[in-house]
Amino acid sequence: MTQGLITTAVGSYPKPDYILRARNQVAQGRMEAAELHKLEEQATEHWIRVQEELDMDVLVDGEMYRGDMVTYFSEHMEGFRISGLVRSYGNRYYRKPIAVGPVGRTSPISLDWWKYSQGLTERPVKAMLTGPYTMADWSFNEYYPTFADLVMEMARVVHEEAVDLQRAGAKYIQVDEPAVSTRPEEMELASRALGVVTEGLDAFTITHVCYGDFSAVYDELVNMPVDMFDLETANSNYDLLDMFREHPLPESKYLSMGVSDSHTHLVEPVEDIKAGIRRALEYLPPHRLFIAPDCGLKTRKEDEAIGKLRNQQQAVSELKAELGIA
């Protein structure tokens, strides 16, 4: 790691139009899946190069091969079938998985994509998994006696995937749990499942939980069994950081703070980003602070996404110079 203010992204980037057209053609039987795969590789390499050119520290693959973070994993697993389209938010839809039998893997799901992405660059590429709580919460359960049973069985499956990624050389493994923000009362269950996922891992582990009021469950949040929490802070005008004033983050934990709102077309000014980071530095030293967007950038246009990342990088570069951080 560098001495501080490490820059990264949460996971997703905008998909080029040619990917969306190709997926429609595959669905209609007018294109082979292998041809789509090549286009997904092309788009992945594009985003790796963009991040290198921006001089980001820890890269992501951009998730060009995923339609949805839950459906992608479930359609590569046993025990699930996929429903019709279900509305998630706004005018966005996804095909909701249904657990109809014992869930499990027949082979690694995300490993080949991580290997491909890491093979494109000398910089570390984060491995990104959908967490067991979110996998269960965003699926229908028609097999397990209780919701908790499905969550804990999914934790075993995600752990297997994380072990495969670590063995392949992944230094950073992120477990996305956005569903936790909608049900903070179930933080204990999500944390218990996350403990199964990260047990025995030596990689630097992260969980991404976005857009929630966590003040009532602060103790459960900061004791989740990961090295770093990835939280949105720009969308809440950095007020979420005030939790750390009254309740300091344990010294063993890191924070990845969002400095650009993934849900707005606005490209945040550099000075606004610097002000947000300075506010975080009141509570955390630079070496325990990562800088990223609030959430994935897949809903933004490409020029907006790159603009947000570029200003993030410039803000961090200027602050490092001011603070004397290498």
Strand content: 15-25%
Q: In total, how many domains does the architecture comprise?
A: 1
Uncertain parts: none
Roughly how much helix do the residues carry, as a percent range? 25-40%
Number of helices: 11
Protein structure class: alpha/beta
Offer a concise description of the structure:
The chain is 39% helix and 17% strand. It is an alpha/beta fold and 326 residues long.
Give the topology, please.
Layout: E1 6-7, H1 17-27, H2 33-53, H3 71-74, E2 78-89, E3 92-104, H4 111-118, E4 127-130, H5 132-137, E5 140-141, H6 147-168, E6 172-176, H7 187-198, E7 204-209, H8 218-222, E8 228-231, H9 243-246, E9 254-258, H10 270-281, E10 289-292, H11 302-323
Parallel strand pairs: 1-10, 3-5, 4-6, 6-7, 7-8, 8-9, 9-10
Antiparallel strand pairs: 2-3
3D architecture notes:
The chain has eleven helices and ten strands. The chain has 326 residues and is an alpha/beta fold. It has one domain (6-323): TIM Barrel. It has a seven-stranded parallel sheet. The relative contact order is 0.14. The mean pLDDT is 92.
